[in-house]
Sequence to fold (66 residues):
Amino acid sequence: MRTRTVSLTRAGQKFVFRYLPGQEKDVLDEIVRIALDLDGDLDMVDAMALCCQVAVSAEDESAGAD
Fold:
């Protein structure tokens, strides 16, 4: 299996998440958990951008399986 990576760079900070196919729900849950942490630097807009990257990656892999 090939490791997937989604990332976001904002205001000099880089957020990187790596996961295996099939772990999309886990990485999405973690992104949202971090965004909901009021003391964290990742906000819900950032989380939405990362979640979209996860969705596109899953869609690309699904299309490649045809």
In short: The first strand starts at residue 4 and ends at 10.
